[in-house]
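Kindly review this record before class:
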Amino acid sequence: MTPESQEFEVQVPDTDPSEADDEPVNQPQPAFGWTAYAEKLNGRFAMIGFISLLLLELITHQDFFTWMGLSR
């Protein structure tokens, strides 16, 4: 079977776009305490901080403690 002879079928759901707007969107709401939303947000900021430290070491060729002046 050659690539030219392959047929692709696209299935489109039978929903009316105006009906989709009536349903509430399930998005996490900010809250205080140990919530799943807070844990995801903290994890994302931790990943950003970790990558930032790696980039700092790559650019300056010094580790974080040397860069801060805490090691000899």
Summary: Helices lie at 17-20, 36-60, 64-68. The chain has a mean pLDDT of 78. DSSP finds three helices and no strands in the chain. Residues 33-72 form one domain.
